[in-house]
Amino acid sequence: MARKQQAELINGGSGDSSGGRGAPTSFLEVRDLKIHFPTDDGLVKSVDGLNFQLERGRTLGIVGESGSGKSVTSLGILGLHNRRNAKVSGEIWLDGTELVGASAGRVRRLRGQKMAMIFQDPLSSMHPFYTVGSQIIEAYRVHNDVSKQVARKHAIDMLGRVGIPKPDKRVDDYPHQFSGGMRQRAMIAMALSCDPELLIADEPTTALDVTVQAQILDLLRDLQQEFNSAIIMITHDLGVVAELSDDILVMYAGRCAEYGPVDDTFHRPLHPYTWGLLGSMPRLDRERSERLMPIKGTPPSLINVPRGCAFNPRCAYGDLNGDKSTTERPELLELEPGHKAACHLPLEKRREIWDSEIRPKL
Amino acid sequence: MTSTGGNETVSTDETTPAGAPVTAPAPAPEARRARGGEPLLQVENLGKHFPVTAGLLRRQVAAVKAVDGVSFSVRKGETLGLVGESGCGKSTTGRMVMRLLDPSFGKITFEGQDITTMSQGRLRPLRRDLQMIFQDPYSSLNPRKTVGALVGAPFRLQKVQTENGVKKAVQEILELVGLNPEHYNRYPHEFSGGQRQRIGIARTLALKPKLIVADEPVSALDVSVQAQVVNLLEDLQDELDLTYVVIAHDLSVVRHISDRVAVMYLGKIVEVADRNDLYERPMHPYTNALLSAVPVPDPSDRGDRQRIRLQGDVPSPLDPPPACRFHTRCWKAQDICKQVEPPLVELSPGHEAACHFPENTTVSATDEVARAAVALAPGTTVVDEPQAEV
User: Based on the structure, what is the number of domains in chain B?
Assistant: First the structure.
């Protein structure tokens, strides 16, 4: 297949990532990001060579199971890892600024101002002793030289913007006086208080009920249109990704398994792990399937990542490659325009399996 | 008083004598588990009000109406799904059925026996038949006990004699749920979340129960592992002839696993129906809203899917809205919804909903509901309301 011959090596010569290629043109570009944690039991390679780009106004969905490294990636971008126990290498370019090598003070100034994060559990990520308002005011005043009155007005304005009723009254409430959905809204208000251009949402709706989840997803979509911000949406729910993302990155054991535009990835996924995720989900938009198709086994330990292809022990098609799966790590190759996957299976074979075995059963 | 067509499902306000022989309905063509038919569990007008106390004397000042009169029955061999948002009372209902919580009112009948007020001592032999799977596989297993001790505990507590010793029996169960029998001497922390949930299921199955109440059995697990556990629950049901009450908030999981589904809102059941009926022709607006809020893993669906967005949050169960509890968030609400509580009535065979303006129904719902409403609150005149569009 011509496309396969054209397929280019994306991560050619990983290792010499220390500069050389210069500032990228994308708003956010992550190059060969590695985040390793030395522990008594061995080196935990939470993120092991990740590459992606994101433009303003676009949304990237990062999907994976627990322990796949998706949250570690987001904390890495924000520079929230303690350098004493985390080894971070690679490059993170945010609007022309490199973050991995930057000083802690410089990253701190950017954090909140240019990039902000929405955490999963708003109850544990807001301080229970301070009112919701004072926490938003604090975040705003760190980056803006304004009086308390002005900051308070801004906080009320933000709370109203994210749809909290009577914001001038609720601004003095404590987090426990808010319902789960309202807390998440307040969290979003706090993250947006400095008009960040990059918003990282780490499982923003996992703790919420479906009807509230739908409200929050709508809110994020509207706010993105208003602020033209770039959003990284980290989730394990493929439904949320399909609803909101432009691009999707599937992570497995700290590496990228598949990366591409959301339509291609959902309609023609090229990695057996993505097939497995799609087959594991009961779906409301299709006829009920008699049986789910789970992935066998459990995600691997990040200390002992399987040799060769990390997904190999759980892959139903690993045997088709002979020894290659257990000896050689598959490269992330661009197989269709913008659509990359890391798998040893020949492309035609993968298309055949998807069309004949997987898709009919979904 | 309405007389519902078939008496096999939920009894609304008429009281079916407990354990009375019930004529089995015409079995649904593809119903995988159409066997059995007599109700194993029957719940009538069950409620739980948690008192709110204040002051030095701990006087009761209010009550959280967690569950406020639910009725349903579970037939032998079937799976009933209980869905709803957090705080709707689904877990409380499950715990009351297990008698882990004492009901404030109502009646629970298990195999024809009234267990509502049975003492814990007399309940103990019944515990063999009634088991529960808990949500969190991390906190529901004692970290200081081995798998063997955890799964073997039911045998000791119930003084069950096993043919080849407890160890053998435990190992057989471990194998049944897909764990290695050699894991007998390991501790819970050595296992992953999915494996722990399997240990929990093994413990539940130890005494071959008849009814299992599973409270969010898969929500703490990863998607790929979730599917394994869902498949395991289905296999075990076929193999051991189990009856499940599955409590979950994930509507797709519930559709997959259940034969019948009951939707709860603020302590009440608003709709009960066969799985296919409910998901294809939801009658209650709340069910409709819930279904349309589920994100669908298909990007091409984006935009052209008709969505219903509910505003605001679920009201507090401390002070639930009068009459129809959904009227504060319902887009179809009229004056009658604020004055007359719609009873749960059968609008088509096997499909019950509690709404004045149900959707997706050819039956003249207005008549049916109006009759019930008048019966419920005589004196209220029911204006002929325009019927809801389908």
Answer: 2
The ranges assigned to domains in chain A are 25-114+197-283+290-361, 123-195
Assembly ipTM: 0.83
CATH code of residue B81: 3.40.50.300
pLDDT at site A57: 94
Q: Per the domain annotation, does B338 fall within a domain?
A: no
- Residue that terminates a domain, selected from B266, B300, B320: B320
Residue range A132-176, pLDDT digits in tens: 999 999 989 999 999 999 999 999 999 998 888 899 999 999 999
User: DSSP H helical segments within chain A, as ranges?
Assistant: 2-6, 70-77, 104-110, 122-125, 132-143, 148-161, 167-170, 180-192, 210-227, 238-244, 262-267, 272-280, 324-327, 347-353
Choose among A54, A30, A58, A61: nearest CA to A205.
A61
**Residue B251, min C-alpha distance to chain A (Å):** 8
Give the model confidence (pLDDT) of B315-329 as tens digits: 888 889 989 999 999
pLDDT at B63 over 60: yes
Could you tell me which chain A residue has the CA closest to the CA of B32? A290
The reply to whether B281 falls in a domain is: yes
Examine residue B343 and state whether it is found in any structural domain, yes or no.
Answer: no
Query: Are B182 and B229 within one domain?
Result: no
How big is the A-B interface in CB pairs under 8 Å?
135
Q: What is the mean pLDDT of residues A9-35?
A: 67
Contact yes or no for A102/A94 (Cβ under 8 A): no
pLDDT in tens, B92-124: 999 999 999 999 999 999 999 999 999 989 998
Residue B129's pLDDT band (boundaries 50, 70, 90)? Answer: very high
Q: How far apart are CA B119 and CA A110, in angstroms?
A: 63
CATH number of A25-114+197-283+290-361: 3.40.50.300
Q: Given CB atoms, is B294 within the 8 Å cutoff of chain A?
A: yes
Picking from B362, B386, B359, B345, the residue whose alpha carbon sits closest to that of residue B283 is: B359
Pick from B249, B276, B297: which is nearest to A209 by CB?
B249
The range of the structural domain enclosing residue B269 comes to: 1-21+31-129+209-320
Q: Which residues from B are below 8 Å from A182, CB to CB?
A: 313
